[in-house]
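INTERNAL TRANSFER SHEET
From: sequence group
To: structure group
Subject: Spermidine/putrescine import ATP-binding protein PotA

Please process the attached sequence and return the structure record in the designated field. Keep the field labels unchanged so the import script can parse them.
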Amino acid sequence: MALLEIRSITRRFGKLEAVKNVSLDIESGQFFTLLGPSGCGKTTILRMIAGFDQPDEGELYLDGQPLADIPPERRPVHTVFQSYALFPHLTVSGNIAFPLEMAGRSRDEIRRRTGEALALVHLEDKGDAFPHELSGGQKQRVALARGLVNKPRLLLLDEPLGALDAKLRERMQGELIALQREVGVTFVFVTHAQQEALALSHRIAVMNEGRIEQLDVPEALYCTPKSRFVADFIGTINLISAEVLEADRHGLRLDAAGLGEIAAPPLASAVAGMRGALAVRPEHLRIAGHAERIGLKNHFSGTVGESLYRGDVTVYKVRLDNGLLLEALATNAGPGRARFHEIGDRVSIEWRHDAGVFLDH
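Return from structure group:
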C-alpha cells in the first residue's frame, strides 16, 4: 500500500476547475515532484494534502486512513514555503523548536531534537542567530530543519528554492537530495523548473491545466514523453511534423513535408497514414560541415542561423532547406576554438534511426 493515495480529486474555484480528477500514489521514502507551469494545479494539490484546502470530489488517504476529517495541525505533514515563513523575532533555534513547543514536548526533548535538526542541516553554529543575519541558503536550511524536527510522514515543499540565485539553487539541490536520503522522509516537491525536477526526483507527475499529462521516472519523461506537451515542457526538443509511411516492429518510416523520408524508432500504436511529430532532443543531432558526412541514417542540409556559446556546449540553430528550424548541441570538449560553425555557414544535420519518439498527439 502506498503511503499517500490520491483518488479522483477535483477542486473548483467558481467555474474554474483547478484540479481535474487527479489520481496518484506516492510511496514511502520517495522524492516525488509535481511539475508544471504556473496555474496547472500543482500547489492546489499540495494544499489539499496539507489540509489547507479540501477537494470538491475525491479522497486522500495517508497510511490507508482518510484525511478528510483531520485538520491541518493534526496531520503528520509539514510544509516548507518559498518565502521560508521564519519568525523574525525568534532565533534559529527558536524557529526550529517552535513545532515541538506547540506539540507540548518536554524542555529536554526540545533541546535535544533542535540540536539534532541543526546538525542535520549543518547550522550548529547559527542557533543563536536571527533570520535577518542569515543568507538565503541558510534561511532555507532553517525552514527545512523546522519542517523535519517533528519527524513528519510527509514533507511538502512548495517552490522552496525559487528565491535563491542560480548557483546557490544548484548547491541546495544537492543538499536536498542528501538530506532526503539521510532522513528517509517522503518529500512531495512542487516546482515549475524542469531541470530541478529531473535532478531531484524519484518520480515526477507532469501537470497541465489541472490534469496529469504523464507520471513517470525522470529518465522516461525525458527520453520517451507521451505527449507533445510533455516533450516540449521537459527540456528543449525539436518537433518535426510528419506522416507515417510504414510501421513495423523494427521502426517507422516517416515523411516530413519538404524534407523527405525520416527513419524513427518503432511505436506500437503507429499505423500508415497517422500524422504526428517526431520529437528529437538537440543532443541527438550531429552537426558537420556541408561537405562532410557523419554517416547517420537521417541527414539533411541547412544554414546556421544562430549559435549560443554556453561553455561546455555550443547550441546551433539551423534552418533546414524546407524552412524548419532545428536546434543541435556540439560539445566543447577539445581545447582552443569552440565555435566551429559561423552564422550563415552551410552545414549537415544528422541523427540516428533510433533517436527520438513519434508522437501522435
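Handover comment: The longest strand covers residues 298-309. Helices lie at 42-50, 92-102, 107-120, 136-148, 166-183, 194-200, 218-223, 228-233.
Transfer complete.
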